[in-house]
Amino acid sequence: MKKLLLSLIYIGGFFLLLEWLWPLGILTNTQNAGVFYLYAAFCFFLAFMQVRWYIAVPLKLLGLIFILDGLFIPERIFSSGWWSILYEQLMFNAEAVWAQEWWDFTAFFRSLLFLVLLWLVSYLLHYWLVIARKALFFIILTFIYITVIDTFTPYEAQGAIIRTFILAALVLGLLQLEKEVSDDRKEIKWKTAILALVPLVCAVLLAVAAGAALPKFSPQWPDPVPYLENVTGGAGTGGGEGGVQKVGYGENDSRLGGAFVQDDTLVFQAIVEDRQYWRAESKDQYTGKGWEDTLEEPVTGRDPGDIGYSLFEEGVETDPSQGFIDFTEEADFGKLLYPYGMTAIGNLENPLEIELHTQTGEMETRSGGDAVQPASYSFDYGAPAFDLRQLREASGEDPVSVREKYLQLPSSVTERTKELASDVVSEYGNRYDKAKAVESYFSSNGFEYSTTDVEVPEAEEDYVDQFVFETKKGYCDNYSTSMVVMLRAEGIPARWVKGFTGGEIKETDAELFGENLNAYDITSANAHSWVEVYFPDVGWVPFEPTQGFTNNADFTSGTDTDSGEPERSEESPEVEAPDQQQEGNPQQIGEEEGAEGSAENGRGEGFLRNLLWWIVPAVILVLPAVMYVTRLRWLSWYHGRRLAKNETPDSFQAAYRHLLVVLDKKVQKRGEGETLRTYAKAIDHRFETVDMQHLTTQYERLVYRKEQRLQRAGLSELWENLIKKALS
């Protein structure tokens, strides 16, 4: 009976050891992993049989030699050539050990060390299980090992945790039973032994079943991987296989989600006329957990002086301009970062080759065939101005190649995600309005922009479904991926784009190319993702669904300029009429209704008069309170209407002063003695715009320079954008 118990304990201990070995194939490039499992079993068998050491050691050594011979040495075993190879391997790796160049170890030597480790572990387990009869320490180590590799590697340990729990409970129970048998020094019958084992097995199975069936808490802490990778110098998105989203620009987007730590390290400075989105590449294949690029080909070489690539058709109106980018040492992309409409680059320190991925827009930079990061370059670009009328009327057929590549959805996309997409766009009849409806959906409906406490979906969860229905908390990757998936669910080709936002304005009078341009600092924290939607006869149009971010693409109203009159909005003539009719003296209205009731019924007249005695005081008391509570909104509506109708210095100054009040109460209080320019810069930094600085410059010109007219048009639109952000 005692031998049976020891046999079961040994088998349980061996399977616990295997839990340390199963991840080998996933975490390393180890091949023929089964050989190592067999060697571990061989060492355990010798220990169980209690073979004397002077026999067990040669047997284990002989098994080790046979394994290394079969894997790495092609010569006949123990021949002169065999010994020569063995000597060379040992000497080379001994030199690497002496020089502490651990990365130079050969596969032969690494396998030798691992086999020796299995040898030692088998003896250690024999000591714990048989001599000391204490397996708890090894079991705790096993749980720690499994949870660590589950957290920090692609290895999925859910099944391993369950197996380890079952094995641990059985081994501990068997050890206790074996201890009882040894202490009593009595021979236990088979029937008694089975009766003793049955409750143990039943208790373990019941505990496993209960644990699997009971509800579980969701993760209580943010994923630690992004923070640790950031602290240890990691950068980019998903720095490795199975990595998660963290601060900065990176290549691996296969698994999105997780919190990150803000990194304000300067990456490059851009000198341009207006704030731009800096595009790097797009990705097409949504996997349910992240994005893959399946469109690496074709790749064509392009002349830096004439790149000849555009995301939109020739018919789109553009505004020719020039700019300059200066990278820091932190930048190591090996690709161009470019604004929409870039046509050429120049002023390069060294000759540069451009390899264009025509499907994704990625432009790799090479020199002599090797990837390089240019230190700086100037560029020509034509910022597009998309015609809203053309976008709304775009009704042609999408090219087959576009539909094949940019309507893909995996099976993980849930039906409720598709139903939500259908509900959001159901009221709209054209592609642009549908895209805008999805883009605007995330600005409300309970969504929250956050870079902390952002969850990573479980193995069976879809990334978009989790964000849209469960957490509603995330950053750009959550918003942009969700918009692409919802559009594709409605048959609208869309793709996921990544790069950088425009950064923070540092200088407003940077002279370049004979012009006064703006200088922007772009940091790792400005790494961003957004959406491009395809429109027939127009091309790829950018959209920005992320809360707190503004699409810097220019959209024109499609007005017929030949008529000389702007296109009139249908609701414009009717905006004030209903409100004016509702305004007035409520008592007068009530008296007129009371008079009509008196002609019909005297009792009705008395009832209405008594009712009015209650209504009128209530209105007098409540209406001022309501107007006071909502004063910022209705005053904003008033100033917005006034400024939109007539952009005069008076209307602008009044609107600007009201904007200061709203920002002070809703966004950020203006410090005592803080100048308007400093306050404007702080607001723009918060909203990632330059709108407040433009408005402040115009206000100072009117107030301090006593100018009699506005210096630029479109101020009402800038003012309205800031008011909406402040009040939201």
From TrEMBL:
Domain of life: Bacteria
Alphabetical keyword list: Membrane, Transmembrane, Transmembrane helix
Membrane-spanning ranges: 5-22, 34-55, 105-128, 135-155, 161-178, 190-214, 611-632
Protein's UniProt keywords contain Acyltransferase: no
Domain Transglutaminase-like: 468-547
InterPro entries per record: Bact_TGase-like, Papain-like_cys_pep_sf, TgpA_N, Transglutaminase-like
Biased composition (Polar residues): 549-561, 579-588
Protein name per Swiss-Prot or TrEMBL: Transglutaminase-like superfamily protein
One Pfam family in the UniProt entry: TgpA_N
SMART domains: TGc (SM00460)
Location of the region described as Disordered in the Swiss-Prot/TrEMBL record: 549-601
This protein's record includes keyword Membrane: yes
